[in-house]
Amino acid sequence: MSATTVVTHFKDQLALFWLARTEQERKYLSVGGVAVLAALVYLLFVAPALDGRTKLRAQLPQLREEAAKMAALGQEAGELARQPVPQVAPMTRESVSAGLTARSITPTSLIISGDYAKLQLNGVSFAGMYAWLDAQRRENRIVAEDVAVTAATPAGQVDAVLTLRQNTGDAAR
Q1: Regions of the chain where pLDDT drops below 50
Q2: What is the pTM of this model?
């Protein structure tokens, strides 16, 4: 059967059903059909729109506040981008030694060559070495390029060979 025959057959069955009803039954069926159709339209289209509108009205003040914060952060980022990159003091043997001494770390050997330093530490606290490396990263833009750490005795002590590099900020932008 083709689709047109099925539709034609359905229309004929519906017409027979409708003609078999009295005028009062037709009126009740029409009013009931309109009521069901109105309920479906309300449930499918109107109610979700009204709920969404209510939720958006409740969220609107928070969204406006977030947008204002984002705009302020954007302006601050723009101002920071226009500022020149702060220059850090070049890495020297004295500055590295002073930082190590402040953390009670004595290097076995320390070689400085331009922006690079090679450092050997024996029997130092791992936590102290890590804290020193973190401070160097934040304050002087010194990063560890190569790290070889081996555990020593007592627990918490390590032997380490570090290759450090200072980011001077020339390639930062």
Answers
A1: 172-173
A2: 0.52
